[in-house]
Specification:
Helix content: under 10%
Radius of gyration: 20 Å
Distance between the termini: 15 Å
Order of helices and strands: EEEEEEEEEEEEEEEEE
Structural class: mainly beta
Oligomer: single chain
Length: 294
Amino acid sequence: MDSGAAGDTAQVVSLGGGANAINIVTAEDLGGGMRAGFTGQIRFSAASGDRTSGGNGNALFHDANVYLTNSMGTVRLGKIAEMSTCAFDPWGCAGGAAMMAGVGVGGDGRGLIGARTIQNAISFATPVINGFSATYQTSLSANPGVHNTATAGSQIIGRTNERTVLSLNYAKGPLSAQVLRTEGDRNDTTDRPSVGAANAINQIADTNGASAQGISASYNFGVARLNVSNIVTKAHTTGLTSNDINTISASIPRGATTFLVGYSKDKGSLATATTDTKIAAGVNYALSKRTTIG
């Protein structure tokens, strides 16, 4: 990175937004079609070698859980990576380079639903049936919270690190689609209850967008893959829309080269006339089956 200031020199600040990772996956065949195991992901900074986990820089494991799976589905316990809208962004969840992560009135990250990790969590994923599948994951606070009668509706406050994610998915042939709903935080860079207590918020009392819903679809035409999404975030206390984001993007492969384009616009809330528009363009070049530069 070079800031452009006089006398400044280029230097490595981060590579991959802290998403450089060592993945650990184990499986034990229990018989009768049932398997059990452990999955974990150790993230680190390629610039410094320090451990990092999506925001607070403290967690050794970004993802660490045990699972049990059979033909009826998969149950996980522990620290669980969320379902997200990353598959409908040509840039995926590549840190600040992701298109959805960069749009949204009031703070970045509003267009990216999910993509965090949930601590003290449990999840259930259905098997894929004729292209359809679903997942549900949730966590419970160690603090049950207290009633605050001074606020509207006698809200419960003090419940920290709580978050739920529900995902309904379809993927078959060239078409994929998803409905994703999160409850628990506004999912931006200043509120990340899922990565550590230091970043916790009062989940019920958060007025800045405690729920979000995304509807996304993608179709591969062969010559290009087209993605469309609508993301809406709402404040928990008022139920009013704080962000309404529409995104259209495409990835266009040409041999070893893939061109990426996208357009996003956040109409904001009815209470303000503020909008946010982003236009993105990029190119990836595959050096090999395993290595790509962009």
